[in-house]
């Protein structure tokens, strides 16, 4: 831009005063100020419009990239879906043929469970369920060293720290 210092503005003011005259100088100064303000507003509008256009172009490019990514993802999902459908239909055919009792329906040998295996698994299941659901009596815990009270980490550190008194009160 034009570099206007204080001395240059003073020279321009003196020349304007001589050329225009003291009667019309205030009107011309107001007109010059309004024209300068309009020019600044116009430049600001142009700059903001250019920046908006740049942002819109970036958004269009981003939108295009997102659409391309979505389209490629959709084609991948469709191809994966057809693979899953074919796999499920083949396994469904194997299950149906095994249900009907077709001989050698699948290439993998199916293990046959004997009644002893079934009975053993049922006993294990009942035992595990009983252990999970039953509460252990306190006399059993006392006899076999089970915990009576839960200690926090800080309390355990204090209890087992060498030289610490474990039976001191808090206060």
UniProtKB/TrEMBL annotation:
Entry membrane topology: Single-pass membrane protein
Superkingdom of the organism of origin: Bacteria
Pfam hit, one: TatA_B_E
InterPro entries xrefs: TatA/B/E, TatB
UniProt keyword annotations, A-Z: Cell inner membrane, Cell membrane, Membrane, Protein transport, Translocation, Transmembrane, Transmembrane helix, Transport
Subcellular location: Cell membrane; Membrane
Entries under Gene3D superfamilies matching the protein: 1.20.5.3310
Mitochondrion found in the keyword field: no
Family membership noted in the UniProt record: Belongs to the TatB family.
Quaternary structure and interacting proteins, as annotated: The Tat system comprises two distinct complexes: a TatABC complex, containing multiple copies of TatA, TatB and TatC subunits, and a separate TatA complex, containing only TatA subunits. Substrates initially bind to the TatABC complex, which probably triggers association of the separate TatA complex to form the active translocon.
Task of the protein: Part of the twin-arginine translocation (Tat) system that transports large folded proteins containing a characteristic twin-arginine motif in their signal peptide across membranes. Together with TatC, TatB is part of a receptor directly interacting with Tat signal peptides. TatB may form an oligomeric binding site that transiently accommodates folded Tat precursor proteins before their translocation.
PANTHER family, per the entry: SEC-INDEPENDENT PROTEIN TRANSLOCASE PROTEIN TATA, CHLOROPLASTIC (PTHR33162)
Protein name: Sec-independent protein translocase protein TatB
Organism from which the protein derives: Massilia norwichensis
